[in-house]
Design a protein that fits this description.
Elements: E1 14-16, H1 21-34, E2 38-41, E3 56-59, E4 66-70, E5 75-79, H2 84-93, E6 96-97, H3 109-114, E7 131-138, E8 143-147, H4 152-158, E9 166-174, E10 176-177, E11 180-189, H5 190-195, H6 197-203, E12 206-211, E13 217-225, H7 235-258, H8 263-272, E14 277-282, H9 283-287, E15 295-303, H10 307-321, E16 329-334, E17 349-357, H11 363-375, E18 379-380, H12 390-396, H13 400-410, H14 419-425
Parallel strand pairs: 1-3, 2-3
Antiparallel strand pairs: 4-5, 5-9, 6-10, 7-8, 7-9, 11-13, 11-14, 12-13, 12-16, 15-17, 15-18, 16-17
Helix pairs in contact: 10-11, 12-14
Bound molecules: flavin-adenine dinucleotide.
Flavin-adenine dinucleotide binds next to β2, α3 and β9.
Length: about 425
């Protein structure tokens, strides 16, 4: 097995693909009888070893699809292994959509919510806030259900749970009527973007920007509800997204890997070649981009009000240290929520994400930026790289210990723990 960025390779004794909740229960009971541990994998798109195990690995790839739709409430109950791209299509067939998404759709819905995956937009929480109810098989082999009205505290723990409460089998999502988005993507002066940041977040449904290291340029992406009909297939957009962002960029990444002195030039060429793009399409197709160039990533959540000053400190640090990097740094915002392990717990937030080509050393760069994030109340994205241990995480998540109590109740034998999760969750 390997994860998307190829950072981790591991060989479980058993990989199980259950087709029903009963099969999931059987696997847990067998593990309890034989004293083995279990980890779950969605699409393996996390950047840390959340699913690494040499014992039992469960994939719900054979447990995908819609279970039911409530048109009046605009909710959909789905099998937890359903990949987001499939979910988007299934919802669309019923005139529904997710209110917001991140920038790819390869993940499973269970993996997505388990790490607090998010998109951008001040009116939207992480994707876990779209969850209305959950059903999972806990570490005793029991089926547990929770929602805002049924086991409400457990629900707040389960909305972002890293797969340590149990194996999620069903998720009820609050959807919205299907909608189209108009996406504008272009390059702009960074100074202009920073000077108008609050207005851009206020005036647009979704706004994000990327800064190319060692340049004065930003790549902005703005999406708003569109009344226009969806575009026909647009060759220019297609070439931009598939060719420039992937194949041409990969050639540049390899060049900068072999000749590190090229990093700054690659950043400048990449920034300069961002074209103006406008497209109108169904929302689930607009959010999703293709990411064929592999990278490793660290992303931190910081309080919204600290965004500009933290980001300016990052610019100074990158420019001063001449890191061997050229990937743009991504900036997004998210509304605060009340899921206990959500990085946006009780605060409107900005997220800053830094990426390094997967064949290059990320450590000096990530270490320097992490120091800045930690000095500004940063909370790491659970699916991305960070160095924090349980004690440090407990200081940053006010409901950390309450979460751990639920973990101990749902999985008293620690069936769902691996070494990495023990480091992150078990307090000394
Ligand atoms: C190219 C790329 C782009 C990305 N873009 C974004 C983005 O825009 N926004 C963002 O926030 N993140 C983003 N991410 C991170 C990604 O969304 C998260 O890491 C997400 O968790 C991956 O989903 P997955 O299905 O691959 O889950 P995995 O990585 O396979 O698993 C994640 C966690 O979920 C658990 N899990 C999986 N299935 C179950 C289950 N049935 N029950 C209980 N636990 C389960 C796993 O054990 C693990 O702890 C991106 C990652 C990549 C590689």
């Amino acid at each position: 097995m390997q994860n998307w960025s190829k950072r981790f390779q591991w060989q479980p004794q058993q990989v199980a693909y259950p087709r029903s909740e009963e099969e999931v229960q059987q696997i847990v009971r067998q593990a309890l009888e034989t004293g083995r541990h279990i980890r779950m994998i969605g699409s393996g798109h996390s950047f840390n070893p959340l699913w690494v195990t040499d014992e039992v690995l469960i994939s719900l790839d054979e447990y995908q699809g819609l279970i039911s739709v409530d048109q009046e409430q605009k909710t959909a109950t789905v099998k937890a292994g359903t990949k987001l791209h499939r979910l988007g299509e299934l919802l669309f067939e019923h005139g529904l959509a997710m209110e917001n998404m991140g920038d790819i759709d390869a993940q499973s819905i269970a993996g997505t919510i388990s790490t607090g995956t998010h998109g951008t937009g001040l009116h939207f929480g992480t994707i876990s806030t779209q969850v209305r109810a959950l059903r999972f098989v806990n570490g005793k082999g029991e089926i547990v259900m929770c929602s805002a009205t049924q086991n409400p505290n457990l629900f707040k723990a389960a909305q972002v749970s890293l797969g340590v409460l149990g194996i999620i089998t069903e998720i009820t999502l609050q959807c919205v009527p299907a909608y189209r988005l108009e996406l504008r993507s272009r390059k702009e002066e960074l100074s202009e973007v920073l000077a108008t940041l609050p207005e851009r977040h206020r005036d647009n449904r979704n706004f994000e920007f990327y800064w190319f290291p060692y340049t004065e340029l930003a790549w902005t992406k703005t999406a708003n509800i569109a009344r226009d009909q969806p575009d026909k297939v647009n060759v220019v957009n297609y070439l931009t997204e598939y060719f420039l962002e992937n194949y041409a960029f990969k050639v540049l990444c390899e060049g900068a890997r072999m000749v590190p002195a090229l990093n700054k030039s690659v950043a400048r060429i990449s920034a300069a070649s961002i074209p103006d793009v406008r497209k109108v399409f169904h929302s689930h197709k607009v959010y999703a981009t293709q990411r064929l160039v592999r990278f490793n990533e660290m992303e931190y959540n910081i309080p919204l009000e600290a965004h500009e000053s933290v980001f300016r400190e990052i610019i100074r640090t990158v420019n001063k240290n001449n890191f061997n990097v050229h990937f743009p740094i991504e900036n997004r915002v998210v509304k605060g929520d009340d899921a206990w392990l959500s990085p946006a717990y009780e605060r409107d937030s900005a997220y800053i994400a830094c990426h390094v080509y997967h064949k290059k050393d990320w450590k000096p760069y990530f270490d320097a930026l992490e120091t800045i994030f930690l000095a500004h109340a940063g909370r790491p994205h659970w699916g991305k790289m960070h160095t924090l241990k349980a004690g440090q995480l407990a200081e940053r998540y006010p409901m950390f210990e309450q979460f751990l109590q639920h973990r101990a109740e749902q999985d008293p034998e620690g069936v769902f723990l691996n070494d990495y999760l023990r480091k992150c969750l078990i307090l000394d």
